[in-house]
Amino acid sequence: MFFKEKLIQGTLIKRYKRFFVDIKHNNKIITAHCPNSGSMLGLLNKGNGVWLSKSSNPERKLKYTLEIVSVNKKLVGINTFLTNKIVLEALNKKEIKNLINFINIKTEVKFSDKTRFDFLLSNQKQKCFLEVKNVTLMRKKNIAEFPDAVTSRGTKHLRELIIAKKKGYDAYMLYLIQRDDCKSFKIAGDIDPDYKNAFNEAVKNGVKILCYDCKLNNEEIRINNQINYEQ
After folding, report:
1. Does some domain include residue 3?
2. How many separate helices (H) and strands (E) can be counted in the chain?
3. Is 82 in a helix, a strand, or coil?
């Protein structure tokens, strides 16, 4: 997925009120939108290099959006609003090998009064619900983790996928790691034990787990390699 325009480089000063971030660019301070509701653990050190997009919408109060953070010379995509767009592009290009047999793709599909899943995939024989989560956390070298904060919504999605599986749908959870320096993935059970328990229950009930990393630069982000996950 290509950005509409080449990103603007700056230096992180601080993030605050969850959705605001101050960036130094050309000796000026820019207040930008931070499109990530997680803790962004490990990404927010003052002085980190960052990349911003600039909106052409004249009605936007914050013209800039934080897209990428550099940590130890590695780029990490933090914009959770791009996650499904990256996956949709990969689905259309048949880049997710477990899902290449599904022909029809629908987005934001209602499953119950409580839940919408990110995708409903189908062919003449099967229907499959696919939920996607964005991953940025790495606390140990080469190991990506999710979540970076307690996520009751994420736990609910896992439990709803179990229900979908029991109703005869295929059910997948895909963790999109917006960085390319990981060799494996695991659930951060110390951060959210309830999520870890729901994840284990989902696996036992036949929900399939997919993990992919991303290649990214200041022009594009695209899905890259499938990553193994640890139980």
Report:
1. no
2. 3, 16
3. helix
Q: Is residue 169 part of a domain?
A: yes
- ∠ at Cα 124 (121, 127), nearest 5°? 30
Name the residue range of residue 145's domain.
Answer: 80-229
CA distance 50 to 71: 9
pLDDT in tens, 137-185: 999 999 999 999 999 999 999 999 999 999 999 999 999 999 999 999 9
Task: Name the strands in the sheet holding 116-122, side by side, starting at the edge strand that comes first in the sequence.
Answer: 104-110, 116-122, 127-135, 170-177, 208-216, 221-226
- Of the chain, the percentage scoring pLDDT greater than 70 comes to 100
Shared domain for 60 and 92, answered yes or no, is no
20, 49, 77: which is the final residue of a domain? 77
Identify the CA nearest to 149 among candidates 38, 4, 23, 59: 38
